[in-house]
Specification:
Rossmann fold; seven-stranded mixed beta sheet; 9 strands; binds S-adenosylmethionine
């Protein structure tokens, strides 16, 4: 009996590694995310939409992590990407994407390109993604990887995302994937009336609060908290 269980386990692990495209592993991750989202919400319906989950099922996370981390690419956890930085946990990527509630023709700014994964998830859902990374080697690698994967609606640049990207503003939504001590005023300025921004705010190397800010048509900013998260710090001279 034990031998049979071991064989079944071995076969299912092989199935997950599958054809080199990790198709089954990615689908298994999405299934896990549905269950996780329901559990976190303690509800019958998960709060992550089908469209966001479809994007999570499409983007090849294994192509955006270092080779040594590939086999873990579809585990629901952050992974190191070098230079002291991480690719975020898939559930947090899905949650942040859901919170900014994007439409197909939206223009979105991301601060903290990292591996390019969050940018790719957004690119499946919106018209244009602009993404800024402050570490030169990561900015170069993400640009090359996203081009190799065929993402034509993602424009990246090297820079300090604290100041946003004035040239392409205003944005329908802004997603900050590094922990800030406060909400950068230039990002609020660059958000469209009716726009949404998601950002982890709190102390460095501690847990932070995930904030969803909404700019009303009158320009007022309403803030809501969406739980505790842990991100690497937003760095830069600001
Ligand atoms: N979104 C990334 C992904 O999908 O892989 C993960 C982001 S990682 C948690 C945070 C990233 O923010 C790091 O790559 C870090 O170098 C970058 N970062 C930190 N401060 C920044 C700043 N002021 N401007 C732009 N990028 C910054």
């Amino acid at each position: 009996m034990r031998v049979l269980a071991a064989i079944l386990l071995f076969v299912s692990v092989l199935a997950l590694a599958d054809d080199g495209n990790y198709t089954a592993a990615r689908a298994a991750m999405v299934e896990e995310l549905w269950l996780y989202a329901k559990f976190v919400d303690d509800a019958d319906e998960a709060r992550i939409s089908k469209a966001v989950m479809a994007s999570m099922n499409t983007v090849k996370r294994h192509e955006l992590v270092p080779r040594s981390e590939r086999r873990y690419a579809y585990e629901n956890r952050p992974l190191p990407i070098g230079y002291g930085q991480t690719i975020s946990q898939p559930y947090i990527v899905a949650l942040m994407t859901q919170l900014i509630d994007v439409d197909a023709d939206d223009v979105v700014l991301e601060v903290g390109t990292g591996s390019g994964y969050q940018a790719a998830i957004l690119a499946e859902l919106v018209g244009h993604v602009y993404s800024i990374e402050i570490i030169p080697a990561l900015a170069i690698r993400a640009k090359q990887d996203l081009e190799r994967l065929g993402y034509k609606n993602i424009i990246t640049k090297l820079g300090d995302g604290y100041y946003g990207w004035e040239e392409h503003a205003p944005f329908d939504a802004i997603i900050v994937t590094a922990a800030a001590s406060h909400v950068p005023p230039p990002l609020i300025d660059q958000l469209k009336p009716g726009g949404r921004m998601v950002i982890p705010v709190g102390e460095r190397f501690m847990t932070q609060t995930l904030l969803l800010l909404e700019k009303t048509e009158k320009g007022e900013v309403i803030s809501r908290q969406h739980g505790a998260v842990r991100f690497v710090p937003l760095t830069g001279e600001h």
